[in-house]
Amino acid sequence: MAHLVTCTPTRALGALAVAGLALLGQPARAQENRAFLETVRKHTTLTTTVPDNGDQNPYAIVVAPVSIGKIRQDDVLIDNFNDLSNLQGTGTTIVDYNPTTRQTTLFAHVPRHQPACPGGVGLSTAMTMLKSGWVIVGSTPSNDGTTRTKGDGCLLVISPTGELVASWTGPDINGPWGNIATVDQGATASLFISMAGFDVPAPDVHDPATGQSVTIAKATVLRLDLAIAEGRPPVIVKRTVVANGFGQRADKDVFMIGPTGLAMGANDMLYVSDALENRIVAIPEATTRTTSAGTGREITRDGLIARPLAMVMTPGGHLLVCNSKNGKVVEIDPVAAKQIAAQWIDTDQAQSPPGSGDLFGIALTPDGKGFYYVEDDMNTVMEAR
């Protein structure tokens, strides 16, 4: 299952050219704000994400900020969306990869049927780990692998030793979907999670005008403000919808499509990948606003972007965005509102285009010089640097 991909500098630059690498601005600006992807030349398989129970389809990927309980600082946590039978919305496990020992262990196995979580458990791309050691992960569950039997889901609070201690629900939580953007002050934190499940029907409910599954413009981005007492699980002190009106729809192949990538930038700006509109938008005053910004301000659309999914901010202030419709990651300068580079990081020829539908979670390496990502087709974690 594991494989190693090593790109020479020549091959890497060729891959960038094929992907449509573009560097914008005057030479001085290009020198000051060099594309992060220019430095990425090697892709290495680290581990399988399949635990003993056979869960598969890795989605979220998070780097541990602290050592506590079962987890060592800089460990890589990955959750699974599918079970052994490969049904979507049924995965219940989080695995832990230690980059120092190169060992992968089971961090948490959440019981599939949770009365406190409407519909049960199917771990999604929504996951974070707080400085206090608590892991928050989204559940977007199904009984048959489609949205026909989708439950509203919940957010699960897991202790540093891998035990489920709480489930967060409510009318503002339905299909926790996108990777969680986290602002963590230790004793307090703000989490941003996209909700893409409101009134989503079965995938065979089609819009007669398009012939595709019907699109519902009800997806939101929810901010949860938390208080964290020492040695106690976090509690929600405030809930605010900071963005709404995004498109969401069922999909027979990928379960559901909706806003997925969330990343905090400078000046309290939250960036969101709007998958169905094929664009990146910005939500200002993200941590302080008390009302919704709607669908925000458009930063960029189309071009190298091909149904954007998970997203992360580089040390230089650029966004790295995974594509769903091919195996590329796209680099965006959000301040200049420019797409500046792309690299084909998954070239699996079994899909068309190569790597289509394989990329989900993405996270920076602790040194900020590379990134981790999952290859869904191989159930593996990769490192790019």
SSE order and pairing:
Blueprint: E1 5-6, H1 9-19, H2 27-32, E2 42-48, E3 56-63, E4 76-82, E5 93-98, E6 103-109, E7 123-129, E8 135-139, E9 154-158, E10 164-168, E11 181-184, E12 188-195, E13 215-227, E14 235-251, E15 255-257, E16 262-264, E17 270-274, E18 279-283, E19 297-301, E20 308-313, E21 319-323, E22 328-333, E23 338-344, E24 359-364, E25 371-375, E26 380-384
Antiparallel strand pairs: 1-2, 2-26, 3-4, 4-5, 5-6, 7-8, 8-9, 9-10, 11-12, 12-13, 13-14, 14-15, 16-17, 17-18, 18-19, 20-21, 21-22, 22-23, 24-25, 25-26
What would you note in describing this structure?
- With 385 residues, the chain is mainly beta.
- The chain has one domain: TolB, C-terminal domain (Neuraminidase, 6 Propeller).
- Helices cover 4% and strands 42% of the residues.
- The protein has 2 helices and 26 strands.
- The chain has helices at residues 9-19, 27-32, and strands spanning 5-6, 42-48, 56-63, 76-82, 93-98, 103-109, 123-129, 135-139, 154-158, 164-168, 181-184, 188-195, 215-227, 235-251, 255-257, 262-264, 270-274, 279-283, 297-301, 308-313, 319-323, 328-333, 338-344, 359-364, 371-375, 380-384.
- A 5-stranded antiparallel β-sheet has the order 1-2-26-25-24, with no helix packed on it. A 5-stranded antiparallel β-sheet has the order 11-12-13-14-15, with no helix packed on it. Strands 3-4-5-6 form a 4-stranded antiparallel β-sheet, with no helix packed on it.
- Residues 1-31 have low confidence and may be disordered.
